[in-house]
Model the fold of this input.
Amino acid sequence: MVSVGQLARQFKVPNELANLYEFANSLDLRRFTHNRMQHAAGDELANAQGLASWMAKRGFAKPGATTPSLLFDTAIQLRSDLRALIECDPAERSKNKAVLRSLNKSLRLFPVIAQANDQGEMRLQSVRNGVLGGLCTIVAELYNASKDGSLDRLKMCAAKECQRVFFDRSKPGSRRWCLSTLCGNRMKTRTYRERHKGIV
Done:
């Protein structure tokens, strides 16, 4: 099981985006074969207890905390909306009205407050504790990342059998795959085979 921040640290995701990144990746849709092993898809937030456990591991809730069913449903909708936004090309995100409309509907449910930090910057922070507080922190990270531009670096792998969210650390910010050595090579090989199909 993933420990606090382990996934974000492994892929060198900035701390300011770590909770958002891991929340988006709590749904694992990978369904490809690698080294003759079929990847098993999964959902860390498969039920309300899974959400409470996920939050407890990250210090937002006490171990053994429970999650009301309504809050669980709200969390799953938020994750779905976040993934839909991240799936869009960064340049197109502000143009996808359906995605923005659904996301805005979800965001209205989470109380956050603007706070000044010791660098003189204004950033959003959660005003609640527990599972709700954790979700509010994710919403705050989303806003802060959109404000400083780092949200454009959070993308979804272009391989449809992967769809992992990744942080694009490339200088031009033009990566399309979570790992070029895995999904990138697989997609390039597939494109090559299709291009040369039927050629004698």
Summary: Residues 69-87 form the longest helix (19 residues). Helices lie at 6-10, 18-24, 48-57, 69-87, 97-107, 130-148, 180-195. The first strand starts at residue 27 and ends at 28.
